[in-house]
Amino acid sequence: MHSGIIVGTNNNQPNSLLNSVNTFVVESKWGNLGLYRHTGNYCPYVIEGNVSYIKYYKRHESHSYNFSYEWVDYTKHLASCECGEEKQMSHVVQAGSSTGMYKTCLLCGGLARTGIIHFSTRFLKMSKNGSYILPNGVIVLVDQDMELFFKGELIFE
């Protein structure tokens, strides 16, 4: 399998036989030949037009796990970055939005267990406005912290 980093696009029309890789500008290493910048379909690893031996990745500085969410269990969901990287993360629920022992996660829409969890507030991480993280990792947000959380600026102490 050969891989490369997508560094841009060009004005080529997509070619369905090549899975549109001819529209990418890519940097990849060609064995002992060195590092090259080329269109996605032009490299020694394209064999008779078959690009199934190649995987291209997008370059970015950091992952942003807010592209899509998939419920895993009552404490976490699978969050995806637009590059394809995935990570399990805690559910996030709104304070007071209870349906018994469970609340609906604001991100994935699945159920998060919040009831009958014994804990001491002495060990609880809280925000200045009163949002907190349960011992099982579920994040409970008060209305005043919603905007800060979704901007990535909420601090728990």
Explain the overall architecture.
- It is a single chain.
- A hairpin with a 5-residue loop joins strand 13 (132-133) and strand 14.
- This protein has a four-stranded mixed β-sheet, with no helix packed on it. A four-stranded mixed β-sheet has the order 8-14-13-12, with no helix packed on it. The protein has a three-stranded antiparallel β-sheet with strand order 5-6-7, with no helix packed on it.
- The mean pLDDT is 78.
- The chain has 157 residues and is mostly beta strands.
- The termini are far apart.
- It has one helix at 146-151; strands at residues 2-9, 24-29, 35-39, 54-58, 68-71, 76-80, 86-90, 92-94, 98-99, 102-104, 111-113, 125-126, 132-133, 139-141.
List keywords for this structure.
4-stranded mixed beta sheet, 157 residues, 4% helix, mainly beta, 1 helix, 36% strand, 14 strands, elongated
The backbone outline, from C-alpha atoms, is elongated
Considering DSSP H and I runs of 4 or more, what fraction of the residues is helical? under 10%
Instruction: List unreliable stretches of 5+ residues.
Output: none
| Helix and strand pattern | EEEEEEEEEEEEEEH
How many angstroms separate the termini? 46 Å
Largest sheet properties:
4 strands, mixed
Average pLDDT for all residues: 78
Strand content: 35-45%
Strand order of the largest sheet: 3-2-1-4
What is the count of helical runs?
Answer: 1
Please give the radius of gyration in angstroms. Answer: 22 Å
| Strand segment tally | 14
The computed structural class is mainly beta
Summarize this structure briefly.
With 157 residues, the chain is mainly beta. It has one helix and 14 strands.
